[in-house]
Structure formats: structure tokens, C-alpha cells
Hints:
Elements: H1 5-20, H2 25-33, H3 39-46, H4 59-62, E1 77-79, E2 87-90, H5 96-108, E3 111-112, E4 128-130, H6 138-151, E5 162-166, E6 172-175, H7 186-190, E7 196-203, E8 209-210, E9 213-215, E10 220-222, E11 229-233, E12 247-249, E13 252-254, E14 257-265
Antiparallel strand pairs: 1-2, 2-11, 3-4, 4-5, 5-14, 6-12, 7-11, 7-14, 8-13, 9-10, 9-12
Amino acid sequence: MILNLQQITEWKRWARLNLHRGLKPQALIPELEKRNIPDNQIRIVFGDAYNAEPDVIDHEAIANCAITRRAGVTPGVRRLHTKKAQVFTWDNFLTPEECQKTISLIDQHLRPSTVTDDGGDARIRTSSTCDLGELENDFIMDIDEKIAAGLGIHWSYSETNQGQKYKVGQEFKSHTDYFEPNMPEFLPNTGELGQRTWTFMIYLNTTPEGGATRFPRLDKIFRPKEGMAVIWNSLTPDGHVNPWTLHHGMKPRKGEKYIITKWFREKGWGPMFAGADPVEG
């Protein structure tokens, strides 16, 4: 079966949607092969993902990805002055239009937020979640790629985007984003994708009162500001988990809070640092 240009375009979108949902190229290529689509056209459909293999896990390189070189160079990017953890902010990472469009999508697809281990506290996380990465939405895939390019790690080395909504009085109590080694949650959550590395969180609105993100061990509070990203590495450069990244999604006291959260992982496909935006002012 020889594909025409329209069919190639349709298959490219199908591949992009499924790759962004977390499926591996090796799981998708047989769908085209069983339709007797020639190999040269399969290569066109998948591009760089064709036969892509996982990159070597290099924690030092992960700790030195592009975001670490942006502070003081890329407008709006600042690094928190501490040696205890790698924490950055990026003002106006998303435009007001991008924020409002994302909020609208979140509101249409909410479910109760969950955790892998509540530590015996059923109310540790009381917000609502939208699985943005499951919506098969081109705009969300563009946001996904924008986040990855800004951080400097390819989007295949990440989980799908999540949106969260916090109403007045809702919170996510103090927690870390990494999976705790030697705990029951560890192997089920890291076997395929590895440990979580960087978190890229974006405020989609400016909360009138409350709703800050507090890092108690760093004695730092970030207050929600539309379009601003807060970015941190949950690991140390030698690959150990970093308990200094403990943080608390605090309760809004007035208004609602909307955020995007994207968690990056140790494992994906293809070169880990492909597609990074240039670091320039």
C-alpha cells in the first residue's frame, strides 16, 4: 500500500498523538507494517522516532540540561540562590492566551486528583486533575514540546501533561515528586520510565489570595502568577533523590488556582537532549 500525501499527513498526526501519549515507536510501527506500507514511507511518518533507542542515563548531564544555562541569559529566567537544590522560575513562559485556552480544556475534563502513596492521609491531595496528555489535542502537544524545548530534555523522556485545579481550601500537602526508593510505590512506578527527574510546573492564572507553592526546607514560597513556570530537579547530579525539594501546594483563600505539571523521567526514546531551544538572550 503506497500512501498519498494526505494519508502520510494523517499517519504523521496519528504517530504524534500516540507518541505524546507515551507509547513507544516500537509499539506503533507494526500498525503500519501490517498494512503493507513500505519501509521508506514508515520512516517518513515517524521521522526521528523511527527505530529510536533509549539514551544512556547520565544524571550529571540531566542536572546540566539547557535550563541551567538560561538564568541571566534568557529573559525571565532566574535561579533560586541555594546549593541545596536546582530550582528555577521563568516569567511569562506561557502567554495569557495559552493559559486561558488550557484552563478551558482543564475545566472540561476534571477528575479527583490521586497520589501513589497517601502516607495514611486520605486528604493529602484534594485538588482536581485533568489528564491533558490524553486529550489528543494538537494545542496541548505544542505546549508539551514547548516545555521540553525550554527545559532542554526531549518530551519522550517525560510523563504526559497534567492540569490541576484548586478551589478555595483545596491543597496538595507537603510531598516530593520523586518515587521513594525502597518503598512499595517505587518499582511499579519506575520499572518502565525510571525515576522522575525534573518537574516543570506552570501557573495558568494569578490567584487573588493564597495558592502559593512552598518549599519549606528551602524557606521559599512562590506565589501564582499567570504564565510563570517553577522548575526543579528532584534528583542530585549523582542521581540520588533530593529531599530538599519537598513542597506544598497551598490552599487558595480567594479564587481558584490552575496549573500545568509535567514530570520528566530517566527513560524515553532517542537522544535525551534533542530539540532544546538555543540558550540565548
